[in-house]
Design brief:
single chain, about 190 residues, little secondary structure, 2 strands, about 5% strand, disordered C terminus
């Protein structure tokens, strides 16, 4: 079957070819080092895909199925990944600076050492996620579910945690992050 990956803004062709599935074509592009920045992959089924070191800056992954995908070291800076399923995905050391993960499912995802500076995680489900050593400076976690998430050594400077669920932060820990925005019921 023939698949074509186009730029989300200009509709120009980025990568195309014969493949069994769009997932196979995207994996082939990543293996070949193709820059998939600004690719339109809306609602793409990339479940379990090997996208290690993928270049997906400003890519449109709204509603994409990325559960179990391997995205370690991937560049997803400014990507729109809202309402996507990233459950059990490996995002170790991924660059998600200013990424829009609004209402994304990240249950059990590995976000260890990921760059989540200014990321929009409003309403995201991060329950049981590993967020160890991640940089969440200025991130928005309003109404996010952090039940059983591991935030060990995560940088929460200026992180907005209004109405976030499941976060158990000791008061003495908050003293080292005086600019964290919290609300009662957190």
């Amino acid at each position: 079957m023939w698949f074509d990956i186009v730029n989300r803004f200009t509709y120009e062709h980025i990568f195309a070819g014969e493949a069994e599935s769009l997932r196979e074509l995207v994996e082939k592009a990543v293996r070949q080092g193709i820059n998939l920045s600004e690719a339109n992959l809306m609602r793409a089924d990339l479940e379990g895909a090997n996208l290690i070191k993928a270049r997906l800056e400003r890519a449109y992954l709204f509603g994409a199925k990325l559960s179990g995908a391997m995205l370690s070291y991937a560049d997803l800076c400014d990507a729109k990944i809202s309402k996507a399923d990233l459950s059990d995905a490996d995002l170790f050391k991924a660059n998600l600076t200013s990424a829009n993960l609004h209402r994304a499912c990240l249950v059990g995802a590995n976000l260890s050492e990921a760059n989540l500076v200014r990321a929009d995680l409003i309403g995201a489900n991060l329950s049981q996620a590993k967020i160890i050593g991640a940089d969440l400076t200025g991130a928005f976690l309003t109404q996010a579910d952090l039940t059983d998430a591991d935030l060990t050594d995560a940088d929460l400077t200026r992180t907005e945690l209004l109405l976030a669920k499941g976060i158990a932060v000791q008061l003495e820990e908050l003293e080292s992050y005086p600019q964290i925005t919290m609300a009662s019921g957190v």
